[in-house]
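Hi L.,

As promised, DUF2237 domain-containing protein:
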Amino acid sequence: MQQQNVLGTALEPCSADPETGFLRDGNCTAVQRDPGRHEVCAVLTEEFLEYSTAQGNDLVTPRPDLNFPGLEPGDRWCLCLPRWEEAREAGVAPPVVLEATNEAVLDTVEAETLKEYDVEKRDV
């Protein structure tokens, strides 16, 4: 069964380069065995990457042993829902790609809140 995005249409890919998602298939798929809930497709900002590193999650440094290329501002990435929420509360949440953000996040974040962070409405 095809998963849906927060707009109620088919979930679109988030990023193939770098390849993202819990399954590393480019999609922010909701997977029951994913405790981090990599369901928010975000366009990363310098501010968010610095914040994430300060919280102990370095997304910038490449980790070849984990097949992780390291990320930079402008990359699209399936973020963990709890980290995106934490960053939002801290005022540094990156914009989201609504078409590629899984509808599963709606159990935690209201659609109107996500629309405030729509990448189409933000300067990135």
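The CA atoms of residues 43 and 73 lie 7 Å apart.

Thanks again for sending the construct details.

K.
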